[in-house]
Design goal:
heterodimer, A: mainly alpha, MetI-like fold, B: 0% strand, disordered N terminus, transmembrane helix (chain A), membrane (chain A), ABC transporter permease subunit (chain A), transport (chain A), cell membrane (chain A)
Chain lengths: 290, 311
C-alpha cells in the first residue's frame, strides 16, 4: 500500500529490492508461525503417538514431518461417539444456514425495500437487540429455553443461530444497493412483494447471501458454550464439545485428540477456504458501512 | 450509521414516475410485518427476553437447588461487589483486556500494512494467517494444551537454544499470557482482514500527492493511512474488545480460572456461579453487569464513529 506505491526508479533500486526482500521474509515468517499449530496438529494426527512425542525435544524437522503415516488415530474416534457428534454439528449448521438465511433476508428486504409505518422503530429494535452480545446472555437464555422444554433438542441448539444481526445488516445494505426502480417495475408487472423478493432481489444478491450464510455457519460451528449449556445429553453432543470432552477424558490419547481436532476443523476450514473471497467481502461490508 | 442509509431509501419525493401509493399503504404494512416478523421475534426472544430474565433473576434470592424466589432488591449486586472472587475476576478481565486489545490491534495493523504491500505471495500469506479463524475455539484450546505441556514442542524449542522449559498454564504468572497467545493466534487474522479491506479503500492519489510533496513512508503512514483507516480501526478495536471480554472456551477447557483465580475471566466466573455453585441470582446479577459494560463499549464506538464522520 503506502510503501509500495512509491516505486521510485532511481538510484535506490538495490535498496528497494533489499527492503522488499526483508518485508517478504517477515511476512513469510508470520504466515509460517500462524500455520504451524495447524500443521503440527495435522501431522500428529497422521502418525503414531510415540513418534509425535519422540520428536519433540529438542525440536527438529521431524517434529513437523510425519515419517510413518497411519490412519489408526481416526479409527478410535468412532468408538468415542465422534461420528454422532459430527453428524449433529453438520445437521445443526445446515439447518441454521437455510432457516437463518430465509429469516434474515426477509427481514433485510422489508427494512431495505418496503415502505411501512414503524420501519424505523422495527429497525431500532433489531439494532439494539443484536448489540447485546449473544455469549453474554447465553446463561439466562438457557434458563428460558429449559423452562419451555427446549433442553436437549435440536431446536434448542439451532434457534440461537437463526437470527443474526450481522447477517441482516449485511443483506440489508446489499439490498439498498439494488435500484428501487427494479422493485417498482416488478410491481407494475404484477409481481407480489414476495415475487419481487424471490425473483428480483434474491437472484441479484448471491455474494451477500453467501457472505451471510458463512456468518451463520461460522457462528454455529464455532459454538461451544451454548451447546454445553443447552444440550448436556450425549445424543445431542456437537463436535466442538465432543473434542473438548474427549481431551478431558482421554487425556493420554493424544493421537485421538489430534485426529478429532483435524476432523472438527476440516469442515469449517474447507468451507472458509472455498468461499474466502465472499467472507472477506462481507467482513468489509458489515458493521462498517450501511 | 443506520440513519444515513435509511434516509436514502425513503420514497424519493422528487423523482417522479412513482405511482401514488397511499391506498396500498395499509396492506403493505401487513406484508412488511410478515417479512420482518420472524427476525423481529428472534431478536426479542433471543436477546430481550433473556435480558429481562437476567434482570428479574438478579433481584431475587436463590435457595440452593431451587429457582430464584424471594425478592431481595439489589442484595445480589451488593453481595457480588463484596465478593473477593468476583472482584478478582473483574481485575483479571480488565488486565487481560488492557494488554491484549492494543496488542492484537497493533499486530493486525502491522500485518495488514505488510500484506497489503506489493510483495510476492501476499494472498497466500493472508490466507495462512486467516486460517486459525476457521478453527473452533475448543479445538484451538486442546491443541495448545498439548503444545504447552512440559514435554511439548514449545519447551522443545526452548531446549534447542539450551533454555529451561516454562510451565505455561500451570504457573500463576504465565497462565494469563499463555491464554493471550492462544486467543491472539485465533483472532489476529480476522481483524487483519477488516483492516486490509479498509486499506484498499484509501484513494491512491492521496499517496501520489504526498510523494510530490516529498513525504516519506513514515509521514504517509501517520498523515494518510492512519487517519483514512480511522473508521475501521475504531470498529476493530471495539469489536475486538467485546470479543475478548467474552472469552470463555479456552479458560473453561484449559484452566477453569486457575491457578489461584489468575485466569478467572468474567465469563468463566459467571458460568461457575450458574453451573457449579448453582446460584442463579448471583450469576444473573453478574450477567447484567457484563451486558452493561459491553453496551457501554458499543456506545463509545458509536460516539467515536459519529463525530467527524462526513462521507
Amino acid at each position: 500500500m503506502a510503501f509500495a506505491v512509491t516505486a521510485r526508479r532511481r538510484p535506490a533500486r538495490t535498496a528497494e529490492t533489499a527492503r522488499r526482500g526483508v518485508l517478504t521474509a517477515v511476512g513469510a515468517a508470520a504466515a509460517v508461525l500462524f500455520l504451524l499449530p495447524l500443521w503440527w496438529m495435522t501431522a500428529s494426527a497422521l502418525r503414531p503417538q510415540e513418534e509425535t512425542f519422540g520428536t519433540l525435544s529438542p525440536v527438529s524437522v521431524w517434529t513437523v514431518l510425519p515419517r510413518h503415516l497411519t490412519a489408526e488415530n481416526f479409527g478410535r474416534l468412532g468408538e468415542a461417539g465422534f461420528t454422532l457428534a459430527m453428524a449433529n454439528s453438520v445437521l445443526v449448521a445446515a439447518v441454521t444456514v437455510v432457516v437463518g438465511l430465509a429469516i434474515c433476508s426477509m427481514a433485510a428486504f422489508a427494512l431495505a425495500v418496503l415502505d411501512f409505518p414503524g420501519r424505523t422503530a422495527v429497525f431500532a429494535v433489531m439494532v439494539v437487540s443484536f448489540l447485546i452480545p449473544f455469549d453474554a446472555i447465553a446463561i439466562p437464555l438457557s434458563s428460558v429455553f429449559r423452562d419451555v422444554g427446549l433442553q436437549n433438542t435440536y431446536a434448542g441448539l439451532i434457534l440461537p443461530g437463526i437470527g443474526n444481526g450481522l447477517a441482516v445488516f449485511l443483506l440489508r445494505s446489499f439490498f439498498l444497493g439494488i435500484p428501487q426502480e427494479l422493485a417498482e417495475a416488478g410491481r407494475v408487472d404484477g409481481l407480489s412483494w414476495w415475487g419481487v423478493f424471490w425473483r428480483v432481489h434474491l437472484p441479484l444478491s448471491q455474494p451477500a447471501l453467501i457472505g451471510a450464510g458463512l456468518i451463520l455457519f461460522v457462528f454455529q460451528w464455532q459454538s461451544y458454550m451454548w451447546p454445553l449449556l443447552i444440550a448436556p445429553d450425549p445424543a445431542k453432543k456437537v463436535a466442538p464439545v465432543a473434542i473438548a470432552q474427549f481431551a478431558g477424558e482421554h487425556g493420554v490419547d493424544f493421537g485421538g485428540i489430534f485426529a478429532g481436532a483435524v476432523v472438527t476443523t476440516a469442515a469449517p476450514l474447507l468451507v472458509l477456504l472455498f468461499f474466502q473471497r465472499y467472507f472477506t467481502q462481507s467482513l468489509s461490508a458489515s458493521g462498517l458501512k450501511g | 450509521m443506520a440513519t444515513q442509509a435509511t434516509v436514502a431509501t425513503e420514497p424519493d419525493t422528487g423523482a417522479a414516475a412513482v405511482p401514488p401509493r397511499r391506498g396500498r399503504r395499509h396492506r403493505d404494512l401487513w406484508v412488511a410485518l410478515a417479512f420482518v416478523a420472524p427476525a423481529l421475534l428472534a431478536a426479542v426472544v433471543l436477546r430481550v427476553w433473556p435480558m429481562v430474565r437476567a434482570v428479574t433473576d438478579s433481584l431475587h434470592s436463590t435457595p440452593l437447588g431451587f429457582g430464584p424466589t424471594e425478592w431481595v432488591g439489589l442484595e445480589q449486586y451488593r453481595a457480588l461487589l463484596g465478593d473477593p472472587a468476583f472482584l478478582n475476576s473483574l481485575v483479571v478481565t480488565a488486565v487481560f483486556g488492557v494488554v491484549i486489545n492494543p496488542l492484537q490491534v497493533l499486530l493486525a495493523l502491522a500485518l495488514a500494512l505488510l500484506l497489503n504491500a506489493r510483495l510476492p505471495a501476499t494472498g497466500l500469506m493472508r490466507t495462512l494467517i486467516f486460517l486459525p479463524v476457521a478453527v473452533p475455539q475448543s479445538v484451538s484450546a486442546v491443541i495448545w494444551a498439548i503444545a504447552y505441556r512440559p514435554d511439548g514442542p514449545l519447551n522443545g524449542t526452548l531446549a534447542l537454544f539450551g533454555l529451561d522449559g516454562l510451565r505455561y498454564l500451570t504457573s500463576p504468572g504465565q497462565a494469563l499470557p499463555s491464554l493471550m497467545v492462544i486467543v491472539s493466534w485465533i483472532g489476529v487474522g480476522y481483524w487483519m482482514m477488516f483492516l486490509i479491506a479498509g486499506l484498499k479503500e484509501i484513494d491512491p492519489t492521496l499517496y501520489e500527492a504526498a510523494q510530490i510533496d516529498g513525504a516519506g513512508r513514515w509521514r504517509q503512514l501517520v498523515s494518510i493511512t492512519i487517519p483514512q483507516l480511522r473508521r475501521q480501526l475504531i470498529f476493530v478495536l471495539v469489536a475486538d474488545t467485546i470479543s475478548n471480554l467474552l472469552v470463555f472456551a479456552p479458560v473453561q477447557i484449559l484452566t477453569n480460572g486457575g491457578p489461584n483465580g489468575r485466569t478467572d475471566l468474567i465469563m468463566n466466573n459467571i458460568f461457575e456461579r450458574a453451573y457449579v455453585a448453582a446460584d442463579t441470582g448471583s450469576a444473573a446479577a453478574a450477567t447484567v453487569i457484563l451486558v452493561v459494560v459491553a453496551l457501554a463499549i458499543v456506545v463509545v464506538q458509536f460516539r467515536l464513529l459519529g463525530t467527524g464522520e462526513e462521507d
